[in-house]
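COURSE: Structural Biology Practicum
ASSIGNMENT: Worksheet 4, Part C
STUDENT ID: 0417
INSTRUCTIONS: Below are two proteins. For each, the amino acid sequence is given first, followed by its structure token string. Answer the questions at the end about the second protein only.

PROTEIN I
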Amino acid sequence: RELAEEEQVDLSAAETPYVQVVESSKRLSYIRNLATMFGARVVDVGADCCIVELCAKSERVDAFMKIAAPFGILEAARSGRMAMSRAAKLSLFEEVASETAETDIAETDLSHLPPS
């Protein structure tokens, strides 16, 4: 459903796929360059494959997958889209929890803490 104007928030959204690509010693430099171009990184290199991690918007992930396909994608696991509001907003529960935590800290018996 489409959000009403007052419900819309500024979000930062991305997904994190792990892509296992067929790798040979000749291809590794190409795969590393491709990963660098997309802001990704090679997180593991094995005898016959490597794993690339990318955190980006879905469209960019799709583009990476399309360009990496000729190298031979063995497996891909995508996190799905994750989003978080860019604006800090405390709920009533968080405000109460914050006040309670401050009170708890003030009442803490310091004799139970390890020596520094």
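PROTEIN II
(use this one for the questions)
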Amino acid sequence: MKKQFITLLLSIATLFSSFAFAGTLNTANEKNSKLIRMVDKADKNDWKTLNLAARLSINWNADLELAKQWLQASIKINDNPEAYEILGDYHLRKGDAKKAYEHYYKAAKMGLFKLDKKDLDRIQRKVLLFGRSL
């Protein structure tokens, strides 16, 4: 009897955990869909929206490859330091600290006279942090 009860509890726990996982997938898909709609609604030369969508996608760990495509499109429109910073975040999320550092460094170098102090400070912190670890 005790064995059957434990088996029943484990079955119920497994069932609920699979529903919870499906809910997580739906949430990620919904977020990704919202980002895709946001990019689709934007002007074709709106590199800032592409950067924002990519940043959110990477932060949410939604669709990293789509985020990379958005960043590449953003760079084609306007070679901007923010896109390189976000590319660094992409590579960091993928586990490549060296490439992340290279992109952060490029973003800092490009943004030296283009970015406001807050943005430049954020990028410089990333350069210092990941430069030390290499």
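ANSWER KEY EXCERPT:
Q1: The chain has one domain: 2-133.
Q2: Residues 15-25 have pLDDT under 50 and may be disordered.
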